[in-house]
Specification:
16 helices, globular, 3 domains, Gyrase A, domain 2, 5-stranded mixed beta barrel, BirA Bifunctional Protein, domain 2, about 30% helix, OB fold (Dihydrolipoamide Acetyltransferase, E2P), 8-stranded mixed beta sheet, 22 strands, alpha+beta, about 600 residues, single chain
Length: about 600
């Protein structure tokens, strides 16, 4: 059977007069005095189909029984719509198909939700994802994802990169998040891990002389979920030998220029703005700052070097800072909103949130009584305090004070409904991250990016002297509109330096040999200098599609509880299958 000559969204005025066969889903049916109108939909769009009883009574009678999501095939002539009946919202809105034949291919039950709109019950949508995917918004998102992926593939091919697949079943190594483990039936008691990223393999490809590698890589992390995080996700992974940071910056900027030009007809300027990690934290309280609006943090520590306010004094006495931000015109904030902002600050480790309201020419706050006139004058000048302003303070160590106010800054913007142009594309490179960060909870040093990141050459001596907090990394993140969409670094390619970094992370020689012996050994056979970056494809597409959640740009995502509701994954496994894998389950104690 011949199903179609073109898609439902492909017809244009030039097709008027043609005899056409179309197939698709019934989006809607309307009965206008016996004349039946059907909106026929497929992934490319909608064409209006008309059934006239006087031309084909049987087809019109069958059309009268059609319901939403029935699959049909129609044949007829393309004609121009009558003047005044055009639908300018559709590319096919100036024409219609006058049907001469109709075949019902498959009937549909009544859908569990309206197909023409996005409902709020996400779990219901994910349970019937095969229906949800038919909606034009989802179709557009998947089309955008395909186009962006193809642009990236084509550009990297032009730049001499080879697409190479790396193993999905690999060793479990301490690289950050918790691994997903897979039992190895042929090696009882042993497990594979699903890769959090192809990090070691792509470095070994560089040792192997591949020179320029990329992969649209599936990655897996067993961590708590949120709007921009899934247990399985996709990243554009690339690595190159004999390359510098500047080479990587230039390449990625060219890729984004091409993506925006071809998907949104927008020209973006390069080079992108660059900012050190310290500057980003100092000014915005975030290592992925949203620079589309101002409201920057200010360091007011010097104003309060001699202060009677114990919270400020304690922070300064312990080497901390006092940061402040001015929420212009927000003195009308309610007590409930103050509590919300305080909770936000506490979520970043702050002990509280001090504030001053400027109302009716007065400073209203319980902390003002501790300030001298000189301190008030200096604060008013530095913070540009005016009637109606709200000043918020963070006093702690540098990272905590900045991070707390950084989160408060974003919440204030939300509460104030500060206008942010969502069509604006604020790209930013954040560079010079710390190489290591000390965890009080774990009582050890951890890698800020990952343990294969190269320290800046001028800071290498600090590793020998034990000044670990001062070492900067040759690492970089790319940020778009306050969202980190990629990160990378220059890598360590010397066995001795890599072993030294492992040692600083508390990984002793025996564990190094067990977990990373293959990498350390490979570096002894002429490893080239190399570096790379990984772009989060899901996050990038969600930003381009202006979606709040990456679940909207993934065909079959998990919900926020890690469940794939359509197929019921994860599910229980039969005990006999577990025994084959040498696994015994332990029931929960009541």
């Amino acid at each position: 059977m011949h199903y179609r000559d073109c898609s439902c969204g492909a017809l244009r005025a030039k097709d008027v007069g043609r005899l056409i066969t179309l197939s698709g889903w019934v989006a809607s049916r309307r009965d206008h005095g016996g004349v039946i109108f059907i909106d026929l939909r497929d992934r490319d769009g909608i064409t209006q189909v008309v059934f006239h009883p006087e031309q084909n009574a049987q087809a019109a009678a069958t059309a009268h029984t059609l319901r939403s999501e029935d699959v049909i095939c129609v044949h007829g002539k393309i004609v121009a719509r009558l003047a005044g009946t055009e639908n300018e919202a559709l590319p096919t809105g100036s024409l219609e198909l006058v049907a001469s034949t109709l075949e019902v291919i498959n009937r549909s039950q009544v859908p569990p939700f309206p197909m023409e709109e996005r409902i709020g019950n996400e779990d219901l949508r994910l349970t019937y994802r095969y229906l949800d995917l038919r909606r034009p918004e989802m179709t557009a998102n998947l089309r955008l994802r395909h186009r962006v992926t193809k642009i990236i593939r084509d550009m990297l091919d032009q730049e001499g990169f080879w697409e190479v697949e790396t193993p999905i079943l690999c060793n479990s190594t301490p690289e950050g998040a918790r691994d997903f483990l897979v039992p190895a039936r042929l090696s009882p008691g042993k497990f594979y891990a699903l890769p959090q990223a192809p990090q070691q393999y792509k470095q070994l490809l560089m040792v192997g002389g591949v020179d320029r590698y990329f992969q649209i890589a599936r990655c897996f992390r067993d961590e708590d979920l949120r709007a921009d995080r899934q247990p399985e996700f996709t990243q554009v992974d690339l690595e190159a030998s004999f390359i510098s940071e500047e080479d990587i910056f230039s390449l990625i900027e060219k890729i984004f220029q091409k993506i925006l030009l071809e998907t949104r007809a927008v020209e973006i300027k390069t080079p992108f703005l660059r900012m050190t990690y310290h500057e980003a934290m100092n000014r915005y309280g975030s290592d992925k700052p949203d620079t589309r609006f101002k409201m920057e943090l200010s360091d007011v520590s010097t104003i309060f070097t001699q202060t009677e306010f114990k919270v400020f004094a304690h922070a300064l006495d312990h080497g901390g800072v006092i940061k402040a931000l001015n929420a212009k015109g927000f003195a009308s904030i309610t007590s409930g909103q103050i509590e919300t902002l305080t909770d936000v600050a506490k979520s970043a480790g702050a002990k509280g949130l001090a504030f001053i309201k400027v109302e009716n020419g007065e400073w209203k706050s319980p902390i003002v009584k501790f300030f001298t006139d000189a301190q008030k004058a200096a604060l008013a000048k530095q913070m540009n305090m005016e009637e109606g302003d709200l000043i918020l303070f963070g006093a702690d160590c540098f990272e905590t004070a900045c991070m707390a106010l950084g989160r408060v800054r974003l919440k204030v913007a939300e509460l104030q409904k500060i206008f942010i142009d969502h069509d604006q594309l604020a790209f930013l490179w954040v560079v010079d991250f710390p190489l290591l960060a000390y965890s009080e909870e774990e009582n050890k040093w951890n890698a800020v990016h990952h343990p294969f990141t190269r320290p800046k050459d001028e800071d290498a001596e600090l590793l020998l002297s034990g000044q670990l907090a001062e070492i900067r990394a040759q690492a970089y993140d790319i940020v778009l509109n306050g969202v980190e969409i990629g990160g990378g670094s220059m890598r360590i390619h010397e066995s001795e330096l890599q072993a030294r970094i492992f040692g600083a992370l508390g990984i002793d020689e025996n564990v190094q040999k067990e977990l990373f012996g293959h990498l350390l050994k490979a570096f002894e056979y002429g490893a080239p200098p190399h570096g790379g970056i990984a772009l989060g494809l899901d996050r990038l597409i969600s930003l381009l599609a202006q979606e709040e959640s990456i679940r909207e740009v993934i065909a079959f995502p998990k919900n926020n509880r890690g469940m794939e509701l359509m197929t019921g994954s994860p599910s229980h496994v039969d005990e006999k299958d577990l025994r084959v894998l040498s696994i015994a389950t332990r029931s929960k104690q009541s």
